RNA sequence: GCGCCUCUAGCUCAACGGUAGAGCAGCGGGCUUUUAACCCGUUGGUUCAGGGUUCGAAACCCUGGGGGCGCACCA
C-alpha cells in the first residue's frame, strides 16, 4: 500500500511537472501577494444572489461574477435539455495511476484495445479545433484525454468544448500514446460529473498567497502539488506510528477531550462550559494523566494520537490545536522511551519519504543512527564554561542569567532559570535530532527523580532544527511524592503563574492503587510532519490552521 | 501585545508622484497529435478601507483591517 502510494506520486510528478518551475517549489511562506479575499468580498459570497447584486447585475462583462453567471447558465442549459450536471455516481475502472502503471510503457503513436473508465478534474485544456486535449487529475495522478470530434460525435464534441477548467468529468475510452509519446485516454464518452461554477487559480502558478492558501485549502490542494505531497507525508507518518505501536503491542485508546482539570503540561487552556451539568470545563492541553490512569488499570501499553489545545501564541511552530501522540509502557524507564522514539520517527521517515536521510539547514544526517544525548545542565555549563546545576543557590543562577540575557521571574527557582538559560544559549544550535536530558525537578512535576541526582529528573526532550519534537520520562509513580509535587504546582499557580498545574485528586487516587514502573513519551505529530516534509511552518502541515475569521 | 514587511483584475505579477498594464483564466474567431498548445481579436479594476499631503496618489503620510516574518508567549 505505502510503496505504491510513493510510486503514484512519482508518476504524478513526472506527468504534472515536466519542468520544475521555481515558483512551485516554495509552498513555504511567500512574500507579497494578496488574495481575492477582501478584494472580491461581494462576488465571493458562495452561490445565491449577492446582497449588493453585483453577480446578478453583470451577466456580460468578465469578472468573477460574470464568470460564475456564465457557468451557472451552462448548468441551467444542461438541466433544461434533461441532462444532469451533478449526477449521483460514477463507476470508474481505474485510477489514473493504475492506467499509467498498466500502460505507461506503450510506444509513441500506438493505440491499444484496453478500455478504461476514469474520472478526474479538468486541469488543462488544449483545443486544436476538431481535436481537444484535456489533462485531468485525480488523487493519484494526471493523465491526458485525447478527444476527437470524429469519435465522440458532433453533439458530444460540443459538450466537450463547453467544459471548463475545474469541471469534474468521467471518461470512457481506450488507452493510447500520442505521437509525442504522451500516455492518453482516447475518449469515446465524456460525462460531466460536477460543474465548477468558480474558476480555478492560475493553471501554472497555482496559488501562492498564503492567506488564500490556508483559508481556501481546497483550492490549494487542487492546484498545488506540493500541498498534496505534504499531507500525504503527514498521513504516512501518522499511519507509520500506528503500525509500529501496534506491532509493539500497544493499544490505541481515546480519552476525554473535555477536562475538569487541565493537567499534564504547563499551558493555558481553552475554557468551555457544559450546560446540562452547569460545569466549567477545559479543552485538554495534554493526554498524559488519563493515559497513566490506564496504566494503573493494568493496560500496560497504551497510546493515543489526538488533538490537544493550548490557548497561547500562534507562530510558525505553534497552532492552538495540534496533534499529539502520547504512549505509556509499563515496566520500562526513560531509556526505553528514547529507544522507541528513535524507532518511531526513523520508521516514519522510511514510510513517509522513503529514506532516513534528512537535510536540515544544510546539514545532512541519518535518522537511523543513534541520536546524540546531551544533558541540559551539561549543555548550559559547556556554553558558559562553568558548572551550572539546580542545586546551586537561586541567587547565583540568577546572576548568571542576568549576565547572559536569559529572562526569568521572581518566583522561579534555580531549575527553571537553568531551563531559560538552555533556551537562550543552547536551543538554537541543535540541528539534528538530539535528546536533551536531565530536566530540573522544578519544571518536571510528573517525572521521576534521577536515580543518581536528586535535583534533576529522568526526563528528556527531543529537539531537532531547534524545535521540540517530543518529551518523555520515567513516570513518577509514588503517590506521596506526586502529591507534594502537585502542591508545589498549586502554590506556584496561586502565586500568579497561570500556566502551572493544580492538584488532581483523582489522579492521586489512581496512583494510590499502584502504578507499575512506567515510561512515557509524547511526540508532536505536526512537527514530525514538518521535519519529514521539509517545511518551516506548522500551517503547512495543518489542513485548516487557526486564522482570524474571514469577513464575508 | 511589540517591531519590520506586505495587500493592484478570478489567479500570478508590472506600473521614476503624471492616461492603471501584462501573462494565464474568460469571451469571439481559426486550427485533428497538443504539452503552461499556438495564432488573431476582445471583456474585465472602489489599486484592502478611511482620512491627509499634492496641480496630480496604486505609490508619500496618518489611522484602521487582513496576512507574513521576527520578538514576547509557548515547562
Please tell me about this protein's structure.
By secondary structure, the chain is of the alpha+beta class. Helix content is 35%, strand content 23%. It has an eight-stranded mixed sheet, with helices on both faces. A five-stranded mixed barrel has the order 1-2-3-5-4. A three-stranded antiparallel sheet has the order 7-9-8, with no helix packed on it. α9 (217-223) packs across α10 and α10 crosses α18 (525-533). The longest helix is centred in the middle third of the chain and has 23 residues, at 225-247. It binds one RNA strand of 75 nucleotides through α5, β1, β2, β3 and α8.
Keywords for this entry:
single chain, 552 residues, alpha+beta, OB fold (Dihydrolipoamide Acetyltransferase, E2P), BirA Bifunctional Protein, domain 2, eight-stranded mixed β-sheet, five-stranded mixed β-barrel, 35% helix, disordered N terminus, RNA-binding
Amino acid at each position: 500500500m505505502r510503496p505504491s502510494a510513493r510510486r503514484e506520486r512519482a508518476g504524478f510528478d513526472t506527468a504534472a511537472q515536466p519542468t520544475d518551475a521555481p515558483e512551485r517549489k516554495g509552498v513555504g511562506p511567500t512574500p507579497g501577494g494578496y488574495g481575492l479575499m477582501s478584494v472580491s468580498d461581494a462576488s465571493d459570497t458562495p452561490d445565491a444572489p449577492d446582497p449588493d447584486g453585483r453577480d446578478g447585475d453583470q451577466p456580460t462583462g468578465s469578472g468573477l461574477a460574470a464568470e460564475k453567471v456564465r457557468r451557472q447558465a451552462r448548468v441551467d442549459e444542461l438541466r433544461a435539455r434533461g441532462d444532469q450536471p451533478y449526477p449521483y455516481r460514477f463507476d470508474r475502472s481505474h485510477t489514473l495511476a493504475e492506467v499509467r502503471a498498466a500502460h505507461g510503457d506503450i510506444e509513441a503513436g500506438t493505440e491499444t484495445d484496453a478500455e478504461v473508465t476514469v474520472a478526474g478534474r479538468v486541469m488543462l485544456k488544449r483545443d486544436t479545433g476538431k481535436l481537444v486535449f484535456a489533462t485531468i487529475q485525480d488523487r493519484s495522478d494526471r493523465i491526458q484525454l485525447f478527444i476527437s470530434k470524429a469519435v465522440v460525435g458532433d453533439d458530444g464534441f460540443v459538450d466537450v468544448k463547453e467544459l471548463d477548467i475545474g469541471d469534474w468529468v468521467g471518461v470512457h475510452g481506450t488507452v493510447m500514446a500520442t505521437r509525442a509519446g504522451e500516455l492518453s485516454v482516447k475518449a469515446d464518452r465524456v460525462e460531466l460529473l460536477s460543474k465548477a461554477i468558480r474558476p480555478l487559480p492560475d493553471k501554472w502558478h497555482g496559488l501562492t498567497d498564503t492567506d488564500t492558501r490556508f483559508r481556501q485549502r481546497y483550492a490549494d490542494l487542487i492546484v498545488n502539488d506540493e500541498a498534496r505531497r505534504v499531507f500525504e507525508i503527514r498521513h504516512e507518518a501518522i499511519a507509520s506510528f500506528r503500525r509500529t505501536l501496534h506491532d509493539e503491542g500497544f493499544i490505541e485508546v481515546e480519552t476525554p477531550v473535555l477536562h475538569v482539570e487541565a493537567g499534564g503540561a504547563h499551558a493555558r487552556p481553552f475554557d468551555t462550559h457544559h450546560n446540562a451539568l452547569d460545569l466549567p470545563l477545559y479543552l485538554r492541553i495534554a493526554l498524559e494523566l488519563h493515559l497513566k490512569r490506564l496504566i494503573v488499570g493494568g493496560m500496560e501499553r497504551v497510546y493515543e494520537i489526538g488533538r490537544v489545545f493550548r490557548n497561547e501564541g500562534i507562530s510558525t511552530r505553534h497552532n492552538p490545536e495540534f496533534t499529539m501522540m502520547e504512549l505509556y509502557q509499563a515496566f520500562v524507564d526513560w531509556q526505553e522511551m528514547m529507544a522507541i522514539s528513535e524507532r518511531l520517527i526513523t520508521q516514519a521517515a522510511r514510510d513517509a519519504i522513503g529514506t532516513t536521510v534528512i537535510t536540515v539547514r544544510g546539514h545532512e544526517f541519518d535518522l537511523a543512527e543513534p541520536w546524540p544525548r546531551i544533558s541540559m545542565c551539561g549543555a548550559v555549563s559547556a556554553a558558559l564554561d562553568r558548572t551550572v546545576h539546580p542545586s546551586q543557590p537561586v541567587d547565583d543562577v540568577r546572576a548568571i542569567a542576568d549576565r547572559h540575557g536569559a529572562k526569568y521571574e521572581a518566583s522561579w527557582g534555580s531549575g527553571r532559570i537553568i531551563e531559560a538559560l538552555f533556551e537562550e544559549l543552547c536551543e538554537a544550535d541543535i540541528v539534528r535530532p538530539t535528546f536533551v536530558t536531565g530536566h530540573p525537578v522544578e519544571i518536571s512535576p510528573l517525572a521521576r527523580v534521577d536515580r543518581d541526582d536528586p535535583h534533576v529528573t529522568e526526563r528528556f526532550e527531543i529537539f531537532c532544527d531547534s524545535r521540540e519534537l517530543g518529551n518523555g520520562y520515567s513516570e513518577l509513580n509514588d503517590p506521596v511524592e506526586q502529591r507534594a509535587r502537585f502542591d508545589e504546582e498549586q502554590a506556584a499557580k496561586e502565586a500568579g503563574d497561570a500556566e502551572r498545574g493544580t492538584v488532581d485528586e483523582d489522579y492521586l487516587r489512581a496512583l494510590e492503587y499502584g502504578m507499575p514502573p512506567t515510561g512515557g513519551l509524547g511526540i508532536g505529530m505536526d512537527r514530525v510532519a514538518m521535519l519529514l516534509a521539509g517545511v518551516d511552518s506548522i500551517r503547512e502541515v495543518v489542513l485548516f490552521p487557526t486564522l482570524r475569521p474571514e469577513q464575508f
